[in-house]
Amino acid sequence: MVHLGPKKPPSRKAAKGSMADVPRDLLEQISQLETLFTVDTQKLCAIVDHFMKELEKGLSKEGGSIPMIPTWVMTMPDGKERGTYLALDMGGTNLRVCEVELLGNRDFDITQSKYHMPPEMKTGSSEQLWDYIADCLQAFLQSHHPSDAQKELSLGFTFSYPCTQTAIHNGVLQRWTKGFDIDNVEGHDVQPMLEAALKRKNVPITVTALINDTTGTMVASNYTDPETQMGVIFGTGCNAAYFDVVKNIPKLEGLVDLDPETPMAINCEWGAFDNEHVVLPRTKYDVQIDEDSPRPNQQAFEKMIAGLYLGEIHRLVMLDLHEQGFIFERKDVEKLKKPYSIDASLLSQIEEDPFENLTEVEDLFLSRFGIQTTEPERKLLRRLAELIGTRSARLSAAGVAAICKKMGIEKCHVGADGSVFNKYPHFQERGAEALADIFGWHHMPPTHYPIKVQPAEDGSGVGAALIAALTLKRMKEGLPVGMKPEFIEKLAQEHK
């Protein structure tokens, strides 16, 4: 369809659009959806209070739903790090290999290649997965170092799944997330699996550090901005990392030879917050997503805020409204019945349509689903996208606030990465507004908010390389990079 006339940039006022021509029955549905998906300040503060308790519980000897994993990253970079390191990032949809040259002046050069993670790999065999990763690393080396193929390189491996780590270079997978469900990996250390595949393929790489992308995000962001005290990811999944101190981590008592004041980066894995369903305002659509997922009753927080699920929430609401006769009357909605046929990027497009009559949304639904929509229907669909996106941003902010309150942080920068944070319309502004609601900042302009969540440095690339560098430095100085050796050996025997 050809649009005549110039596009008007969307304004805050125009974003919601006029509802004057929306029939009363649809207005009532919009009102009900607003009630269902709005998280007011009182509820937000209650979530923050419960979140703080759950963070503490995760650090205790008893533990809790939020794993609160000590990462064995025990220092921030000082900016003087030098050398060349490889970084591997195994995300939910892509595999990325980077070569990072640290220049010693808080600066770096990076060369990178991206490889698609085939969907069938997510449910294939363990050997297929690790061999594929080794092939990608080998292809990268052959492409960038064809004449120097046998030089041993240190690798920072960003493995963004909940792992128990007894040392910086190893990690026992607790459970798969982001749609992965590969047998014989959960309960096992992933580092020997990757190194075995590298050995099979004769690839000269040593896994020096196994990190989470969120920890990497925090370290990389601190490298270029020393005010950064936290790293967060709002993308396919969600997570956070921050620095605590050993004395605040009761579950490490007796397991480490470290000064009680030693900093320790904690990989929260906060997607599991409120798995008990105590405080999060779940709708029937959230419940359905959870029940139909490969892992019911896990990742409760993630399933309400992460990019993997936002489009699915929208799809379930649309189907429900259709079945009740409110939208798409006498239309074929067969294509809409496919689970996860809508992703967060489509919600972004719905929100970003600059036309009052939402003709771009009309084109979208016609081309993607063969559904001819009416203007009132499109206005409902956009309002629904706004509500789902806003709820995600506000709940995300609750996690940031909980860590700040727990640690007594009144002013800091938070390095944030992920497709939802970087690309979803108004996500950053909505999150900032939620923090202002929680902390009572509305007397000051947003530019003066003391806690700022801002775009991060490349955590899975630069962060992984930095952590590899910091690890080698600690090892050369004879400093611990994990639990007491006898406990590592004992746990290794138990896993065998």
Automatic annotation (TrEMBL):
Residues 1-15 have a biased composition (Basic residues). It is an enzyme of class 2 (transferase). One of its GO terms (biological process) is mannose metabolic process. Pathway: Carbohydrate metabolism; hexose metabolism; Carbohydrate degradation; glycolysis; D-glyceraldehyde 3-phosphate and glycerone phosphate from D-glucose: step 1/4. It catalyses: D-fructose + ATP = D-fructose 6-phosphate + ADP + H(+); a D-hexose + ATP = a D-hexose 6-phosphate + ADP + H(+). One of its GO terms (cellular component) is mitochondrion. GO terms for molecular function: ATP binding; D-glucose binding; fructokinase activity; glucokinase activity; mannokinase activity. Keywords: ATP-binding, Glycolysis, Kinase, Nucleotide-binding, Transferase. Its EC number is 2.7.1.-. PANTHER family: HEXOKINASE, HEXOKINASE TYPE 1-RELATED. This is Phosphotransferase. Belongs to the hexokinase family. Residues 229-470 form the Hexokinase C-terminal domain. InterPro entries: ATPase_NBD, Hexokinase, Hexokinase_C, Hexokinase_N.
